[in-house]
């Protein structure tokens, strides 16, 4: 049976067709945004979709670096954000100038950067990576003596432990994920002794050490579908719980901490999506030279994985 949709949702659907637009939403977006999205996903999945979509307009519901990545991969499309003030504090912790300085200090190092970075920073990278493939990218560089891995020091710690490599890192971190503490996991485990603990690699190393599995957000969605477990304690931004519950009605999901909220991911609403489709704003466009250099690092990642 077709679901009942609101007037707002109906208008978005209509205008989306008129504009030849596709709506992409990150897994942390508000339920109302996930409901009108054509695709939901993690950073890697959304990049892949952005790269191959035939739509003329991409409405990106996420944070700024994600829309920039879409624009880098699909320069002929119009990429718009319903709220272009939705930034990522972690991405803002490293500038291109900072990275150039670090590269000068380690002139022979291969440079790997988390997708949570600005286009200018990506233009300085040899390889981009996401939380899904960071370990694979570093493993691919086994012949390199030295590797710079920026900006997330906790993702770097996780990758270093998994690959056995020593990495040159930066002091970046996600302010939302570090709110999840080992005490939170301990408490939830006590309440739900049969639950599996799944956490994002942006979490504190002490939290990562307690997990049954360390996964990107879409890997968590896959794990939740495929596991025999009926209960999961979820150590990531709370927005993912909506998707997990919707996709798995017979299972229970408990946030490791209700405090793990990314305010920037909550800026986008249905009203703003409608406005962005009406006005075709705010456009996110990466200047040509930066785009070309940044694209190389993203393409290399997509070739490895
Ligand atoms: P993924 O969805 O790629 O796991 O990333 C999480 C995140 O924090 C995005 O900013
Ligand atoms: Fe950035 Fe953290 Fe928000 Fe992800 S959850 S967008 S890393 S601040």
Distance, first to last CA: 39 Å
Strands, total number = 12
**Which bin fits the share of residues in helices?**
40-55%
Please tell me what the overall shape is: globular
* Helix and strand run: HEHEHEHEHEHEHEHEHEHEHEHEHH
Broad structural category: alpha/beta
Mean pLDDT: 97
CATH-derived topology of the largest domain: Rossmann fold
Q: Which regions are unreliable across 5 or more consecutive residues at pLDDT < 50?
A: none
Q: Record the strand order, biggest sheet.
A: 2-1-3-4
User: What is the CATH superfamily of the largest domain?
Assistant: NadA-like
Largest sheet: 4 strands, parallel
Number of helical segments with 4 or more residues = 14
Radius of gyration: 19 Å
Compute the number of structural domains. Answer: 3
What's the architecture of the largest domain, going by CATH?
3-Layer(aba) Sandwich
User: Compounds present?
Assistant: 1,3-dihydroxyacetonephosphate, iron/sulfur cluster
> Tell me, what is the CATH class of the largest domain?
Alpha Beta
Please state roughly what percent of the residues sit in beta strands, choosing from under 5%, 5-15%, 15-25%, 25-35%, 35-45% or over 45%.
15-25%
